[in-house]
Amino acid sequence: MLELRLPKKTPPGAEQADPPGTAAELDPSLAAPAEDAPPAREVVRAHGINFFYGQHQVLFNVEVTAYEREILALIGPSGCGKSTFLRTLNRMNDTIPGARLEGEVLITGQNIYAPGTDVIGLRRRVGMIFQRSNPFPFSIAENVAYGLKVNGLAKKKGEQADVVERCLRATGLWDEVKDRLNKPALALSGGQQQRLCIARALAIEPEILLMDEPASALDPIATGRIEELALELKEKYTIVIVTHNLQQAARISDRTSFFLMGRLVESGRTQAMFTNPQRKETEDYITGRFG
Amino acid sequence: MSATASSLVRVEQAHWGDRVYSWALRLIAALVPLLIVAIGVELYRGSQPSRVAFGWHFLSSSAWDPVFGHFGAWPYIYGTLLTTVLALLIAAPLGVGTALFLAEMAPLWLRAPLGYLIELLAAVPSVVYGLWGIFVLAPWLQNSLEPWLTAHFGFLPFFQGAPYGVGFLAAGLILAVMTVPFIVGVAREVIAAVPVSQREAAYALSATHWDAIWDVVLPSARSGILGGIMLGMGRALGETMAVTMVIGNRPTVSASLLAPGYTLSSVIANELTEAMTQLHLSALREIGLVLFGITLVVNILARLFVWRVTRGIGKVI
């Protein structure tokens, strides 16, 4: 298996806190970090990604890096390839016939597209939340425990109940559902279902959470709860979130990558990018001139 | 004013057309259940002499003697139910497995041709299956499978006695082959209809392909798969020609699958042209009535069963 040895942690006091490679070039804000900024560990690094559905190329030489315990927002107009890109990070596109990828995606330094990669093990480390909440037609508790079940974790009934409670508490659902854990998950409201899906993803203790427009089907209040939740989860997880809601990206993300027509246009600190975009296309998009 | 009046008239006319149309459709729709009722009534009336002569005893009696006028349907009921159960025991796992392969695993280029081939199984005339049963299946059973079964599983009541080749086992196997395409056809559709989002939810939680199929796809597709099995069961209960050719046509009630037997439909097909007495004819009609009743009851029970297991998950998709 191909393994790139990347510095896991830059020693304290190092002058250059940014990781090597194109990420710094694409991300000028990183080249000049705040003086007391902690050294960031690269958790996700996509390098030279070209992606095809059959003959149709949808991603062109995409470079994206996500650091430990940050929220990276992927923005761009519909059809720009941001969701497709997100799905390359846990190899969810593997299930689509005719899909093909060139390039490499390093998750904590390991290329997940190297031959012999354990895709099942990968998805345990990289959880995913989908655009439309998709709870299973099981009970609330069974939904949360499903990941434990298929991974052969938490064999004892008590342990399982503990995990269910912990994950439901982490998503703020516990008080709402603790009296009906054995009721069907599909009886929950849309926002609750989406938080249940997040709880379900947390149960197998991933390192990275991929969120594919997780609030786009929800009302503003439920959206607000998901955003608060993302900010809380950032304390423990690295989050990559696709959103077409620019305010959302501005509210919650640390850094933003802007996609256009399958190409990465610009990456940077969210605040810097929204106030002072480096590229004309970015400016046009965030000021609402198209998209 | 006149404009309003004329538009009202048009509306009236449209209403009139709608009414005719709606009544015509109701009439047509009512014809189908009426036909079923008419068949039931006709069978009931035609079986009058037999019903008067034997009463309920007809169902439990094993006598079948046209010369002395003793008739009982039990061996035929037994044969029909046994061969149907046997067929479904074989065809249900085979059909669902095939459907899973077609919908989930087969490479794309293989799915359509393989699907057509399996559908073609349903188009083969049953007499052709019967011929294959007589010339290929029965000799193979007699010379290979049945001796092997008696040698290794002879301690079970199901595999005792001399290997005839023809019998319950042969009929069950033939029926299984004839039932599989129905089960595959329906099961494949409902499996493919399980939403992608459900599968992806499972995959994202690091489920294997098998986990996703077993935990997510099959439970969601359960009602449809049961429907397909019911469809196959309807076929197996009534199938006549192929069964008549391989079941041995001897009214036996035996636990052994190797024994020759008889079914309700086979005895009608075999004896209707030879029935001389009024009583014999009406006994055969009563056999028809019994088969009609069994099919009706089994279908109603199966529907209730499907309804029961799908309550609560029916609204998922």
Structure write-up:
The complex is a heterodimer of chains A (291) and B (317). With 291 residues, chain A is an alpha/beta fold. Chain A has 12 helices and 10 strands. Chain A has a 6-stranded mixed sheet with strand order 6-7-8-3-9-10, with helices on both faces. In chain A, strands 2-1-4-5 form a 4-stranded antiparallel sheet. In chain A, a hairpin with a 2-residue loop joins strand 1 (42-53) and strand 2 (56-67). In chain A, helix 5 crosses helix 6, helix 6 crosses helix 8 (190-202) and helix 8 (190-202) packs parallel to helix 9. Chain A is globular and about 55 Å long. By secondary structure, chain B is mostly helical. Chain B has a single domain (48-313), classed as MetI-like fold, CATH 1.10.3720.10. Chain B has 12 helices and 2 strands. Chain B has a two-stranded antiparallel sheet. The longest helix of chain B is centred in the N-terminal third of the chain and has 45 residues, at 2-46. Chain B starts with a helix and ends in a 7-residue tail after the last helix. Residues 312-317 of chain B have low confidence and may be disordered.
Strand content of chain B: under 5%
Order of helices and strands of chain B: HHHEEHHHHHHHHH
How many E-type strands of chain B? 2
In CATH, what is the class of chain B?
A: Mainly Alpha
Characteristic key phrases:
heterodimer; A: 291 residues; alpha/beta; 6-stranded mixed beta sheet; 4-stranded antiparallel beta sheet; 34% helix; disordered N terminus; B: 317 residues; mainly alpha; 12 helices; flat
